[in-house]
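Re: the pair you flagged

First of the two:
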Amino acid sequence: MKIMNSSHKQSPSFTSTRLSGIINTANDCSTLHACHYTNLARKDYNWKKLPALLYDRFEKQGMTNINFYGGSDGSDAYTFVINAIRTLGAKAKKFFPVLSSDLSPTIIKEADESKILLHNRDIEYLKNLDALKYFEKNNQEDVQIMSGIEFFPYKVKPELRDKVEFSVQDIRKAVMQKDFADSALFFRNGWGFNKLDEQNNIAKDLYEHSNAKTIIGIGQSDLYKSDASDALQRNGFKGIKTEVFTNAETDYPAVYAGTPKTKPVYEQFVFFEK
């Protein structure tokens, strides 16, 4: 296995995702429409509490779609699945497969092939949850060094991989075409890669294709680098206060391309409902 320094770029995509060996470095985030920068269990959510929040909301219905848009390599989806299994046991199966999509065909191809890059903190997190058993080292790929951090190639084993379904999707189109009634939708830390009118359109179309059971989740950086919270409330959603949101700063690059947010009009929230 070789160690490779990576600064490879790919086409801009409206995502929220991992600094990956096939993607771009953190410094590139200031010049692209978006960058792939993520890790398992990003600190802005209490991932242990999220499955219970969703189960309580959807307990009385059958199979329930959990959607992660801008989902990159599936880090958020895998984090949710691992914690759902740990905290809900057999009851978690109503959420599987979790749906994870990204605008980048390259990222989705890698994810479909069960490939993922993990750095040391990811690995330590998985060990603490006894969840490293769901991954195996991929000795056919090179270790990547990005911004001085080593990313180790792994493969996701079928018992976890089969609980996530990947697809290439653009959230701007998906919210016009799909029905999100009785489901959860997460678009985290990617709103700012859309222009202000696009952010408003996403919120507007999402409202029209959801119902009282729908729950929406955004990310911590969306509060400071986008108009997501205001756009959702301006179009009819109400904010939800929950202990799932920690307000801890994510590892998102401090500088990235995107539309500067306007001065907030509404109280800022991360979870929303009709």
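Second of the two:
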Amino acid sequence: MDIDFIVVINLLNLDSYIIQLYMKIAVLVKQVVGSESSLEISQDQKWIDDSNATFVMNPPDNYAIEEAILIKEKVGLGEVVIVSMGPQRVQKVIREGLSKGADRGIHIETESLKEIDPLYTSKVLAETLRDENFDLILSGLQSDDSGMGQTGVLLGELLNMSTATLAIETDIDQNKIRVKRELESGWFQWVELESPASLSIQSGINQPRYPSLKGIMGAKKKEIKVIPAPQVEKRQSISEIFVPKKSKETEFIETDIDSTVERIIEILKTEVKVF
């Protein structure tokens, strides 16, 4: 494993020493529109008009931050770095993470989040974070706006890291990274990973802490490194955003079974467009 260790030597007794694990952990945090904000489609119908929206930290990311801090507290040494991508306003959620106990922040600056898909985001993150050599990268289950849930896994693959999703428990010590994953139908799975690793954290894994007044004041002095987003090819474009027209129409198909099936398939293809 490539996890760093720090050897602490007792100068009074050189025959005894303690090996402590040092974990360098990144937490991916996204700023999203608050659930109570009223959104309308922009005039060019290419995006939403968020000029009057309230922006908040993506709720599932709170669990990833808490888990990173708990891991750091357990191993004793290390740092937690909050990473976010977007315009200047995303520094608000970075500061929120710092106020909870993270050590520093990285702001990947881009003016627009239009036409950003998980692969593009992951490539930008990979290019930016590659030289940081993180031992762990944690991300929330998914974002409240797009709900893709792919960025953490894609980033791990691009950085040649072990990956695991739906983590509901972590067990990290000097020799291993063990993750308990939530599966379907009430089943669970323990997996052992090599370091470095990228984990998607399931919501509910812990109880996220609230920032203390001391933490809020201290966050103002912590470093946020601003890095322009590297040039990465976008493979997704938005042609139009629109609200589906509501209509009520009933069609009675009174014919033989074969003709009825053909008509249903035609409706599904041309009107409902499920194929």
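The CA atoms of residues 97 and 252 lie 58 Å apart.

-B.
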